[in-house]
Structure formats: C-alpha cells, structure tokens
Amino acid sequence: MIRKQLFFKISFILLVTQIFTACDIDVDNNVPGVPPEGRFATVVANQHIDTPSVEVAIAISDNGSPVNLVGGDVVQASTTEDLILLLDNGIYNGSYAASLENDLNLDQIDFLMVHAPVEARQGRWFPADIFNIDHGPGELVGASATITLPPTPLNISISGTNFSSISDTFDITWTPESAGDTMRVRSAISCTDGDRTSTYGTSATLADTSDDGTENISIDQFIYDINDENLNVDFILDESRAALQELLIKLSNGEPVDEFFNYFPVINPINSPCEIQLFLFRERQGAFDSPTTNGNIFGSRSADITITYTPN
C-alpha cells in the first residue's frame, strides 16, 4: 500500500514528461529540458486539497548548468499574509524549495530574489551572525515573478475502483472551470509480489487537457509488462517526479519516506497487485517580471483519488 505522502522539496510540476522504455531509464539530477545556452528559470507552486500550505520551488540554470545561489542571495516567496525564504535544496541540482503557509487559500504567490546574508546562513554549524563576509547582492537580486493559483479540482470521481486488465479503461470526472487552465493526471504506483514492493510514477497522456470535467484513461498508462518493448507508459523522471515526491512526503505528515520515484520495478507490474494513487492537477501559467526572461513558470492546485489493479 502506498504511504500517504505529498508535495515538494523542489515542487516542479513541469509538463515535460519524457517517454522511456524499461531499458531507457535515465536518472539525472539536473533539471531536464534546460537549453544549452543562456539563462533559464523554472518556477512552480502547488497547493494540494485540504493542505494549509503551498509548495514552492525554483531552479535557475546558465548555459545548461545549474546556478547555485551564494553570497546571501536567496529566493523569497510570499502571499499578502506570509513569506518564506527558499533555503532547502530541492531534488535537482541547483533547485530550492519551501512550504509557504497559505491557510487562507490565497491565490497570488509572488517570488523575489533578495539579498539576506544572515538568513541564508541558517542551519550552518556556526552562528549565522558571525563569520559573515558580505560581498553584497548579486546580479539576480531584484528579479521577480508572479503565479496565480487556479481553483482546486473538486468532486473527483472514477468509473470503477478495481481493474484486472491493462486494456481496461475508466472515466475520471471533476467539476470543470471556465478559466482555460490545463489539466494533468499523474500517478504514484506501488506493486507487490508478496515479498518485494516496487514503486514508480507515471504521467497519463490525455486526449484533451482542457478543463472540461471528464477524461477517459486506460490502465496501460499506469500498469505495464516489464518484458514489453512497446510501452504505453510515460515514466515520471523530470520535474513532475520531484513534485509528486514532495507531494507524497507532505501527505505522510512528516514521516521519513524513501525517494519514491528513484526505485524502478524489480517485479513485473502486470502480474502483481498494484495500488495506483492518481493526482489530478489544474495548472495555470505564471509570469516573469521581465518579458525577456526565458523559462517555465506556472502554479497549480491538485487533488487525489486511489484505484487498484488486481490481475486475473
């Protein structure tokens, strides 16, 4: 059974999932999809249903390489009621993440690069207010971005809860909105053969990503035969993996959890009972302060529902 866990140590929900076969799996700790030239930023925020905080994250790269913030420069995320510095390293190199309190469910999240040399040294073995040689703010200080979170997906239902064949399909429905947002379905899957358990994540390919309130999905987007070279599964290996990893951590109420999506099946899912935790995301594009900034920025709200697979 999947341990209830949730969102972000780098809450990347980027839509750039890549198709991998069982022999093509690549586990790189650099943010994928970054161009080899120029500066590129990824900024995301997600709030899961019935949670009082927004998981926020950012990563910056320069000429394809991660940019680690030094010298007291740090990203601040804020609403009109609360703010937090992104001091924790995310799951990817050069990424930073935090949980921003948002018990009022405010929609606007502002990001600002600030110079805070004392606060940025919190957690060091020495007092943060000594050995502080401040070289002043870096060139990124003052850069900003804004994300507006869309409404939470509500009234999620599934036409069936237990499936026995990868050719089975189901309808997932929710209350639609009219804002023109994008819908995504991702999964956290746990399969067991009685002695061993394998965990992995997938991103469903939807026929229509519009917020129309319904989508038909096949089980073979989640369960597969490890011996089949022609898979219909998109494994989560990118920013979406990081987002779901942290979403799962959050839902565990702080319990230590393994790197859920770092383990790929050692048993064959098609022959094993599996629990499939489905996450429905409603995503909305954000905006950088400068129109010349290259990158990806969006916010989302999410909800989840669980189905099972039991082979005949």
Automatic annotation (TrEMBL):
PROSITE patterns: PROKAR_LIPOPROTEIN. Keywords: Signal. Residues 1-22 form the signal peptide. It comes from the Bacteria. This is DUF4249 family protein. It comes from endosymbiont of Galathealinum brachiosum. The lineage of its organism: Bacteria, Pseudomonadati, Pseudomonadota, Gammaproteobacteria, sulfur-oxidizing symbionts.
